[in-house]
Design brief:
about 170 residues; alpha/beta; Rossmann fold; 6 helices; globular; binds adenosine-5'-diphosphate
Length: about 170
């Protein structure tokens, strides 16, 4: 039998900041693939709260127990980065039906650009199916409890960032 090829998945996103929903998906993907690259996108359309390096640092901290997951960043087209890294599959999380339309469009466009790139959709635990980074940021701004949504470390970084933004006006 021929030697088994190593399988690499790319989980791209903004991760502003990483939440327990993202971590849930990373864990599921890491059980299926040899390597999971969590790719922080330089997103021109969004004005992120955290810089790319801050987001990467938080992700690195949150995935340190997952041996086959690594973090990286990319600009430009996802398909170009995927080819550069020999990625076999792009992982996307599907929370609710509302995610479907956008995700299907992205997956089909990416497939049009590169036919060999497969998009794999994964469902998080139902506890996280209503969760996204912007809700977490909003809650944090107004003093809501976010302990259930993000790891302690991320909560700490979020509160620290909001405080420093407040003091700089
Ligand atoms: P984007 O800017 O691409 O929406 P995000 O960082 O918000 O990036 O999300 C990256 C991926 O993670 C997307 O596929 C998104 O659907 C998924 N995702 C976000 N939050 C959750 C969650 N709570 N559970 C599962 N998947 C999620």
């Amino acid at each position: 039998m021929s030697e088994k090829k190593s399988r690499t998945a790319l989980y791209p996103g903004t991760f502003d900041p990483i939440t327990n929903g993202h971590i849930d998906i990373i864990k599921r993907a890491s059980a299926l693939f040899d390597t999971v690259i969590v790719g922080v996108a330089h997103n021109r359309q969004k004005q992120p709260l955290f810089s790319v390096s801050e987001r990467m640092e938080m992700i690195r901290h949150c995935i340190e127990d997952i041996d086959n997951a690594v973090v990286d960043q990319f600009g430009g087209l996802l398909v170009d980065y995927a080819v550069e890294k020999n990625v076999n599959a792009v992982i996307r999380g599907l929370r609710a039906v509302s995610d479907f339309e956008y995700e299907m469009q992205m997956a089909l466009v990416n497939r049009k650009l590169n036919d060999s790139l497969v998009t794999v959709f994964m469902m998080p635990h139902e506890n996280y199916s209503y969760l996204n980074s912007s809700i977490v940021r909003e809650l944090a701004i107004y003093g809501g409890k976010i302990d259930f949504f993000v790891p302690k470390y991320v909560k700490h970084k979020l509160l620290e960032k909001l405080q420093s933004n407040e003091s700089t006006g």
